[in-house]
Write a structure and sequence with these properties.
The protein has helices at 3-12, 49-56, 89-107; strands spanning 16-22, 25-31, 34-36, 39-41, 59-67, 74-82. The chain has 108 residues and is an alpha+beta fold.
C-alpha cells in the first residue's frame, strides 16, 4: 500500500483493534478511534482490564483492516507504539472532539 492508501485506511476505518500485553498473554480489544497528525487516539473508561494493561505495559499494537466486497482480498495497517494516557482535561477535550467529528462524518 502507498503512504496515501495507508493514511486513508487509518482515517476511514470504523473500528481499530488494540493489542495489549497482560501478565499471562496478549489481549486484543476493538476500539473506536480517530487518526490525525500521525497520532491514533481513542477513549476508554478510567478503570477496567484495558486501562490496567495500558498502565502496566504501555507498548501496544494497533490494527485496522478492510475487506473487498467479495472478501477475497484484505487491506490492513499494523502499527506498533507506546500509549500515552492523557490526564489533562483541556487536551482530552481536543481529542474527544476529533473522535466525535470522525463518527459524525462517517454516519452522514
Amino acid at each position: 500500500m502507498s503512504s496515501e492508501e495507508i493514511e486513508q485506511l487509518l482515517i476511514n476505518a470504523r473500528v481499530g483493534r488494540l493489542g495489549l500485553s497482560l501478565t499471562d498473554g496478549p489481549y486484543i480489544v476493538p476500539v473506536g478511534y480517530a487518526y490525525s497528525d500521525a497520532e491514533i487516539f481513542f477513549h476508554t473508561c478510567s478503570k477496567g482490564l484495558k486501562m490496567k494493561a495500558l498502565q502496566n505495559k504501555p507498548n501496544i499494537c494497533f490494527e485496522v483492516d478492510e475487506s473487498l466486497s467479495d472478501a477475497s482480498m484484505y487491506k490492513s495497517v499494523i502499527i506498533f507504539g507506546k500509549a500515552e494516557i492523557i490526564g489533562d482535561k483541556e487536551q482530552m477535550i481536543t481529542y474527544l472532539q476529533k473522535l466525535i467529528d470522525k463518527y459524525r462524518i462517517l454516519e452522514s
